Amino acid sequence: MCDTLVALASETPRGALLFGKNSDRERNEAQVLEMHPPRRGLGDLKLTYITIPEVAETHATLISRPCWMWGAEMGANEHGVVIGNEALHARVPAQRRRALTGMDLVRLGLERGATAAQALAVIIALLERHGQGGDCGHLGRFYYHNGFIIADASEAYVLETVGRDWVVEAVAGRRALSNAYSIGTGWSAISPGLAAQGRGRFDVAAHLIDEARDAVSFGRGRCARGQELLALADDALTPGAMRAILRDHGEAADWSPANTVGRTICMHAAQGPRRSQSVASMVSEVGARAVHWVTATSAPCTSLFKPVLFEAGPPPVGPAPGDTYDGESLWWRHERLHRALLADHAAGMALIAAERDALEAGFQARIDGADDLAAAVADCWREAARAEARWTAALRPASLGGSPYARSWGRLNQVAGLPRT
């Protein structure tokens, strides 16, 4: 389960496109943040499950990918194209036979498209040729169709798919996308196969959506919440405002990670069907230059967004994390903090939230005014590491108790080999 957001440059006070995404995956499914230079040369390209022909040259990319996949949940390329994907559930079952995954399509779009329109065309062509399918779960099986937001400095598109068919909506202002079909009658392009399923300008989302699955994922509810928060930001839709939306837990006065009714944009896992959580987050501001604000860690409410720019080089995230604890990896180091905060989330936020927001405001000012971008980026990451180390040291290890919620976390902590103290 994920949430993706976009606002065109005309909608923001800084005059740059804003893109944001929370990637929701299983609790121990660490996400790898990495930067890749262009590749040159033909041959075969091995993806998550299948092999396809390589192209002569690719673009440099910044991607955030599940640790066991080739493809990416979200990312950007050197030309300012940004893409995020969403699991979609249709009445038509998703293909179980291995093919392209939605994550493969995100990364391929970034590698092969120098504009949003080009990336859109790349994804559609590959989808039609190779199809989509295969298990996209980590410990639990998970099959789904895919939706995408694809954007660059000047335009954005929503692409929603079912099998090899697709529908596109050109974004007019601000747009949210979650785990539910959302393109109604306002589509701007549609595949022949999908067009043949209705008459005239029919409501594609109403035709495709699996109501039972949506009741579980709360996809339409989260999409509506994201759209509402984008609108409420009004003329103050800055990178900081987009980060705040990704941290949203809804309006329930008694909300806690263990007491969540439905699913929120900042997702927290629990027992039963709610096994996903936000394991990585990204906000991109794409204008005269592109600045990508990434957590490289789970739970954006407990994380700091740090800047990444292609001209400053790869971020210092340590070794690529896997699905077991590694104290050298930034993702797993943060899990010591994140999982400690679950014992009393409200008290933990009281400890860190004000400093978290102040640090991010300082990072923004530093990047905005930097002459030496590489040095400014490095300073921000060092300062973030020091802050998280302080917060982790200040938290006393606490028990979650003996509830089903606590037992679900205890079991996954044990599977990951997470130290108890």
Strand content: 15-25%
Q: Report the strand count.
A: 16
Q: SSE order, as H and E?
A: EEEEEEEEHHEEEEEHHHHHEEEHHHH
Describe the global form. Answer: globular
Main β sheet profile = 8 strands, antiparallel
User: Number of DSSP helices?
Assistant: 11
Low-confidence stretches: none
In round numbers, the mean pLDDT is 95
Radius of gyration: 20 Å
Structural class: alpha+beta
Helix content: 25-40%
Q: Biggest sheet, strands in spatial order?
A: 3-6-7-8-9-10-11-13
**N- to C-terminal separation?**
30 Å
What does the model show?
- This protein is of the alpha+beta class and 421 residues long.
- It contains 11 helices and 16 strands.
- The chain has helices spanning 102-112, 116-130, 192-195, 204-208, 211-217, 219-232, 239-246, 330-341, 345-368, 373-394, 404-416, and strands spanning 3-7, 17-26, 31-36, 44-46, 51-53, 61-66, 74-77, 82-88, 145-151, 156-162, 165-170, 174-177, 189-190, 276-286, 290-294, 306-308.
- Helix 1 crosses helix 2 (116-130).
- The chain is globular, with a radius of gyration of 20 Å.
- The two termini are 30 Å apart.
- The mean pLDDT is 95.
